[in-house]
Amino acid sequence: MQEKTNTVAVNSVRLGLNVHKGKSKVLKVNTDNVTPITLEGDVLEEVESFTYLGSIVDKLGGTDADVKVRIETWRTTVTAMKRTQTFTNTCLRRILRISRPDIFSNQELRQRIRQHPVEEEILRRCWRWISHTLRKPASSTTRYALFWNPQGKRKRGRLRNTWRHDLEADMKRTGHTWEQLEKLAQDRDAWRAFFRGLCPKLGHRHK
Predict the structure, then answer these.
(1) C-alpha to C-alpha distance for 59 and 32, rounded to whole angstroms
(2) Entry pTM
């Protein structure tokens, strides 16, 4: 990696370009090498992950981190949930070599492998992310984005449903406000108690 960094620096100078040391970060994937990477004698900052073209890349490689974030912030619908659950059931049956659904129901299938329904799992991850975000300091960009309300005029026509709108609708079904959830999130035991009874109250999403 050091050799490639040196090559980029040399060729950038040749083309009249300047590599900004402060904005240049290093991400080492699946390696035990702890040797710092330098640029013109200065050590570059090493990060745990970064976002490239909307996708998250982390030190472990693969897509786990990106998939996790997308699940936590994915606006779900009844149609999307049915399709996702059907696909999941099909994959599980193939893995377990169960070809006849009439002798082994989907519920029995999930009980056998101790897996929650897809919709419930997504809701669990979504609200776990919310509690984590609400415990962050007020200066956190992630927390600020959770409450951010963009200004300006929207396009004509019916207001398009969003993940934020779904979240607020779910919150109303539980009988809580943002202020109450903020206080609740600070007490992990209280949040767990709230979380355990959460999914049955939310019901089904919009089509």
Answers:
(1) 11
(2) 0.50
